[in-house]
Amino acid sequence: MNYFTKKLFIPSASAAMIVLSGCSSTAVNNELVSSAEQHFNQTAGPNSVREYAPLKYEQAKESLQKLKSAAESDADESRLEHLAYMSRKHSEIALQQAKLKKAEKSIQQAEVNRKDLLLALKSEDLEQTKQRADQLASEKQQAQSQLEQMKAKNNQMAQLLNELKAKETERGLVLTLDSILFELNKATLKSGSERSVDKLAEFLKSYPDRNLLVEGFTDSTGEESYNQQLSRDRAEAIQSELIAKGVSPERIEIKGYGEQFPVATNETRAGRQMNRRVEVIVANKGDDLIERRR
Q: Which interval of the chain is the signal sequence (predicted)?
């Protein structure tokens, strides 16, 4: 290749790399927008959400539009992931608000029906009408109980997610189990980890229609091949604990990454201990599990 040919080839190669990079970024942006829009349609999209929670519906719609606008203006990936997370949350909040308002309306209607029947006591059979009124009162009590249970479950799940340090990502809900740490060169759980496993199992049993991926990690001590196997053994340790606590084995996949993806420096003892960890990814409802990007 002569000098003139080299001068032409080098800029062309650079331009090709830029085009490929832009295509990759565009594909990721489109995937984030598509996933968020699908989630919006499934949660905030139904007519009942617009009827019972119009304000929350508009907020969810506005949040999705912000994501679309940012994607069209080629915002960076971290900004888009944050906007996608906020879009999902606004959609879920709109759905929950609609459910609560609908339940409250059912309670109000039950009370209206009960009072109407009481007014009809003079013109209908007294005993039959009283039985119907009692039945409506019972239905009102059941609706009130269901509403309270719904609120309690929402509060309980919010508390569990906070304790498990959950983070919404494009892969699903990522739970980093900081308190489930391992001793050097071992796949057995350290003392005191049981409570964290119990919390995780409790959360997973509340969402039986979602699959999960358990990822194991090590520090950089030792051979790479040894660490790869050790990280898988650690993921299997968590898998076994969850199965023992009632989580279906068909829902659980495991993956060992060895010393890849550290969360702290491997130059200190404390950093290496943090890198000996397990992370659990809970897929969004109806979605497939997505392995970690290298």
A: 1-26
Q: What is residue 8's predicted lDDT score, i.e. its pLDDT?
A: 44
Rounded Cα distance between 164 and 172, Å, is 14
pLDDT category at 103 given cuts 50, 70, 90 is: confident
| Both structure tokens of 34 | 């598509």
Same domain, 145 and 204: no
Question: Which residues make beta-bridge pairs with 176?
Answer: 279
- CA–CA distance, 285 with 255 (Å, rounded to integer): 21
> b/e map of 149-175 (b: 16 or more CB within 10 Å)?
eeeeeeeeeeebbeebebebebbbbbb
Residue 92's domain comprises 12-163
267 three-class SS: coil
Residue ending a domain, choose from 144, 163, 182: 163
Q: Which residues pair with 166 in a beta bridge?
A: 175
Assess whether 236 and 95 both reside in one domain: no
The single-letter DSSP state of residue 70 is H
Within a domain: residue 2? no
Reported pTM: 0.51
pLDDT at 266: 94
Based on the fold, state whether residues 122 and 229 are members of the same structural domain.
no
pLDDT at position 197 is 83
| Torsion angles phi and psi, residue 256, rounded to 5 | -110, 130
Do 177 and 159 share a structural domain?
Answer: no
Mean pLDDT lowest among 46-55, 104-113, 159-168: 159-168
Residues 31, 66 within the same domain: yes
Q: Is residue 288 part of a domain?
A: no
pLDDT in tens, 203-214: 888 888 888 999
Q: Is residue 195 part of a domain?
A: yes
* 18 lies in the same domain as 46: yes
Q: Would the pLDDT of 258 be above 90? A: yes
Q: Which of 132, 109, 135, 136 is nearest to 121 (CA)?
A: 132
